Amino acid sequence: MAKPMSWKWKLAIGAVVGVLFVMGFIFTDSGHTWMKARIMTAYNELPDNEKRTSPLADKFLSLAYFRANIIMDTKTGMEMYKEFCGMRFKGDRGTEYGMKVINTGKLDGICSPKGDIGWGPMHPRAPEAFYNYILLYDPIHSNQFTKQEIENYHRLFYTWCRVWGPDHKVHPLYMKYWPKLAEMGARFNVGWSDPSIATPSAAPKYDPKTDPTISQ
Predict the structure, then answer these.
(1) Which of 56, 105, 130, 200 could form a disulfide with 164 if both were Cys (CB 3.0 to 4.6 A apart)?
(2) Could you tell me how far CA 10 lies from the centroid of its own chain?
(3) 200: helix, coil or strand?
């Protein structure tokens, strides 16, 4: 007669099964919905003055990266990056929304409409999020449409920040990604819709030593 399995073995097997279940769950749509909901519930419970500096932003962006690059759900990843930046719009053509943002100052995303509370374009990692959005957008769209979304990067972190931002200055990390994006935009051999985009003279020089997104 076989010897009964000890409680230690039963516990070990149960733990392994549990781990495998959790690992499988996070790859499902339901798992993604659950994880995002937990992040957003915790975010919404924070006092307004703590939302921007909360480490929940890192968790949200990590989830967006995981969904887009590991699960290969590009659409969901792009939508998460957009709403993080305050650029929540329907479809994959953001020019009209981008123009509305710089004309009215009103944002739609994980921030207040004025951008003074929450994440949105004033968050230190917002330019990175928008850059990652464009990296996902580019392979599945023409150079022309990619250039239009690159213009939205400029509208948000250059124009909006100068006109509507609390300190009326270009986002301090604008130039961290702009040279790469300008080079991408040059592939479509037609000028920018606004010629001044080619010379963002008010943008501060990027200095890695003062970059808050890098561990110093």
Answers:
(1) 105
(2) 43
(3) coil
